[in-house]
């Protein structure tokens, strides 16, 4: 196999010049005829640059990823947030030519091909994690993170979002803020709820009596809002854990004869397409959930490619979108 030294000897130039020419160094000042001669000799000797070697190696490396979702597939119908995550995973796998197996409700599907990476979407119990670890140690959490874990993760900073919404309502002059949310697992509070309750109590604007928890569905939001509105006294500002829940809350408030945002204001999370077309349109925090799926795939590929051992935590950005449900 030809080396840089072989090319330098035949071209009559230094080893450094050959290296900089073949790596297209923009700072190199050398005659065009010299560059041309070096490329001709490299082609004649069938020299492969490091980039072409890496590309060839990457082509040889075939991947088969498994995406394990901690919820039933029906959840994607009730909340497009979950559908968007899966779409990001599938789109990126298709783009990179990666075989993908989807498993729902933490039920592992047997496959004939070796698994080279696992995307664990949402929180999973230790038993499932131990089972998956037997397939590969190349695991990436999506929509969940654990600072003590040895695995990569792609997540959203729900604690920051909860504080941002609380601060916004405080700046608007509200002295009492309620919460309507959901849970992914029985008797397990969502990070949004925990962060909101802790921060809101610290600020003196949140009482646990104003925290309502059900499921991440519109029907649950409707039921919980009716329960809240049935009380003689209720908060006039609401933090809603998701747009899907908020749609049900909106209906309940309208049926109660209240005006939004004059009588009650609300901000939700996700910014699903429907959020712009509710009445009034939802003020919400835009989360790029599809990007979480995409970056999860990228981390698995990059870890194998570079032999990286250090786990990475990636947070996708979010942005507060103020619309009709806030003043």
UniProtKB/TrEMBL annotation:
Pfam families: LacI, Peripla_BP_3. It comes from the Bacteria. The keyword Transcription regulation applies. Residues 2-58 form the HTH lacI-type domain. PROSITE patterns: HTH_LACI_1, HTH_LACI_2. Keywords: DNA-binding, Transcription, Transcription regulation. Gene3D superfamilies: 3.40.50.2300, lambda repressor-like DNA-binding domains. GO terms for molecular function: DNA-binding transcription factor activity; transcription cis-regulatory region binding. PANTHER family: HTH-TYPE TRANSCRIPTIONAL REGULATOR EBGR (PTHR30146:SF149), LACI-RELATED TRANSCRIPTIONAL REPRESSOR (PTHR30146). This is DNA-binding transcriptional repressor EbgR. It comes from Vibrio brasiliensis LMG 20546.
């Amino acid at each position: 196999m030809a080396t840089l030294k072989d090319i330098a000897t035949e071209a009559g130039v230094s080893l450094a010049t050959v290296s900089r020419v073949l790596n297209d160094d923009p700072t190199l000042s050398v005659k065009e005829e010299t560059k041309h001669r070096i490329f001709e000799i490299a082609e004649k000797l069938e020299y492969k640059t490091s980039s072409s070697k890496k590309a060839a190696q990457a082509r040889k490396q075939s991947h088969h990823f498994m995406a394990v979702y901690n919820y039933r597939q029906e959840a994607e119908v009730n909340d497009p947030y979950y559908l968007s995550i899966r779409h990001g995973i599938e789109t990126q796998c298709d783009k990179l030519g990666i075989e993908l197996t989807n498993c729902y409700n933490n039920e592992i599907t047997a496959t004939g091909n070796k698994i080279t990476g696992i995307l664990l979407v949402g929180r999973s119990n230790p038993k499932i994690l131990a089972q998956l670890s037997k397939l590969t140690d190349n695991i990436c959490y999506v929509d969940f993170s654990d600072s003590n874990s040895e695995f990569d993760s792609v997540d959203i900073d729900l604690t920051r979002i909860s504080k941002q919404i609380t601060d916004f309502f405080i700046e608007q002059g509200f002295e009492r803020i309620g919460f309507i949310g959901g849970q992914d697992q029985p008797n397990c509070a969502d990070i949004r709820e925990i962060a909101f309750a802790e921060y809101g109590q610290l600020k003196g604007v949140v009482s646990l009596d104003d925290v309502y928890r059900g499921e991440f569905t519109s029907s649950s939001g409707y039921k919980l809002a009716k329960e809240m509105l049935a009380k003689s006294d209720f908060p006039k500002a609401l933090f809603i854990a998701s747009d899907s829940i908020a749609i049900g809350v909106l209906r309940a408030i309208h049926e109660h004869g209240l005006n939004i945002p004059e009588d009650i204001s609300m901000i939700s999370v996700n910014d699903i397409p429907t959020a712009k077309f509710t009445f009034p349109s939802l003020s919400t925090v835009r989360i790029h959930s599809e990007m979480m799926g995409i970056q999860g795939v990228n981390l698995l590929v990059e870890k194998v490619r570079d032999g990286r051992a250090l786990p990475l935590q990636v947070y996708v950005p979010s942005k507060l979108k103020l619309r009709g449900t806030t003043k």
